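sorry for the late reply, my laptop died twice this morning and i had to redo everyting from scratch. anyway the thing you sent over, i finally got around to it. pasting the sequence first so we're on the same page, its 71 residues, then the predicted structure underneath. double check i copied it right bc i was rushing
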Amino acid sequence: MSQTITIRLNKELAAWLEETASRTGVSQGRIVREQLEKAKMAKADKPFMRLAGIMRGPKDLSQRKGYSTKA
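ok and here's the structure:
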């Protein structure tokens, strides 16, 4: 390993990490690295997410003029 980071966890996350490491016999550092790898891969699986939040207009497109379901 070539990079070291320090993070602050709330009590709930710290307890989960400690309990998971104890239960599985895997180091806390390895659990964190595996979760980071999963997050990295999840982003790669969803390239369309780069478009999230850039669309303008009503959230429900049926609210646009001419698309009303009311007769």
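The mean pLDDT is 81.
thats about all i looked at so far, will dig more tmrw
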